[in-house]
Amino acid sequence: MKGRLFLPLLLIALSFPLAANSLRIFTLSADEWARPRTGEVIPDFDALRAAVGYWDKGANFAMLIRYPGEDSGEIWASELRDWFISLGIPSDYILLVSGSQDADEVTIIVGNRTELKL
Q1: Model-level pTM?
Q2: Each residue of 73-118: pLDDT tens digit?
Q3: Which of 32, 37, 67, 117 could hold 77 in an S-S bridge, CB 3.0 to 4.6 Å?
Q4: Cβ of 111: how many Cβ atoms within 10 Å?
């Protein structure tokens, strides 16, 4: 009797969509960012290429750029945002947030706007 009940219950449980976390985290180091930056070089940055590729695949996806809190971190994040805009991401899909845990890297979080709380 238990076996007969198991299969229908399993099918019912599997018919409900599971809530999946769409957030992906990409990291750009200060050493990598120190390289000369041009329109030809920027797409070669692994983190940027992966972040743009992932953003492009999602519906209603946005980017959150978390940067070190000092002035140089804000300048870095602003320039990075400008590069993302030049790569085709609308500016209203990019949010800059101060307070990266590591002073020598920027974290790029890409995912659904509701999961990013935007």
Answers
A1: 0.79
A2: 899 999 999 999 999 999 999 999 998 777 889 999 999 998 888 6
A3: 67
A4: 21
